[in-house]
Write a structure and sequence with these properties.
This protein is an all-alpha fold and 223 residues long. It is built from six helices and two strands; from the N terminus they run H-H-H-E-E-H-H-H. It has one domain. A hairpin with a 5-residue loop joins strand 1 and strand 2. The structure holds zinc ion.
């Protein structure tokens, strides 16, 4: 009895899912018309722009250091860690906490690995970025797989290469965002499970904020 009453409701639900417009096949574009793709794109564009600015600052800082030293300063794991640490810190501050982000890497043997979970919308930009590293790697790598060619690279050149990678990434991301604006009259909402996840995350953040405010006022009352 109950199940037969539920059936029409279920069918309505299934049809509702079927008629949600998904313009993912838009010409020349890998991004669909989902709100989440837009959040991801905007966030990554902000992060990449921030990274490029940070590289500009670091490049001029290291050029000054090199002048002072009077010799080329070469990359080692400490320098590389410091550079990546400060760029990574800026990038994390520039990202939208609701956005998805994926990593990619080109190893010393010039093999590119992109996080398999990367969405089609962001994957192309990551590929373009890593292609810059692969090109530099192919040109410089030795036949000995145990020698990392980057140990004979100037810190400044390494940072210029990274900046060029982000530049390529930005070009692709901007193109994707323009296409999305052109092709998608309406952006589809987040799917319900993603929406729930984001709301739970926000609620938790708000709880933490109000807890820290309570602590703050408690601290003040003690003074
Ligand atoms: Zn890179």
């Amino acid at each position: 009895m109950h199940t037969t009453r539920l059936l029409p409701l279920l069918l309505v639900g299934v049809f509702a899912l079927l008629i949600i417009p998904v313009d993912s096949g838009a010409q020349g574009s890998a991004c669909g018309c989902s709100q989440q793709d837009k959040i991801d794109l905007d966030s990554r564009i902000n992060q990449v722009t921030t990274a490029m600015k940070e590289y500009d600052a670091l490049i001029s800082e290291w050029e000054t250091k090199e002048k002072g030293a009077g010799e080329p300063l070469m990359l080692n794991s400490t320098h590389r860690g410091n550079v990546q640490g400060s760029v990574g810190f800026r990038m994390s501050g520039a990202g939208d906490p609701n956005a998805r982000a994926f990593d990619a890497v080109t190893d010393p043997a010039c093999h590119i690995t992109i996080n398999p979970n990367a969405t089609p919308c962001l994957r192309g930009a990551l590929e373009d970025h890593e292609a810059v590293h692969k090109k530099a790697c192919d040109k410089n790598t030795s036949s000995n797989p145990f020698i990392d060619w980057r140990s004979s690279q100037r810190v400044v050149d390494y940072m210029k290469e990274e900046k060029a990678g982000y530049q390529k990434e930005l070009e692709r991301l901007t193109k994707e965002r323009d296409q999305q604006q052109k092709n998608c009259q309406k952006l589809t909402k987040l799917d319900p499970s993603m929406q729930r996840q984001l709301e739970q995350g926000k609620a938790q953040q708000e709880r933490l904020q109000s807890a820290s405010k309570r602590l703050e006022s408690f601290g003040k009352s003690l003074n």
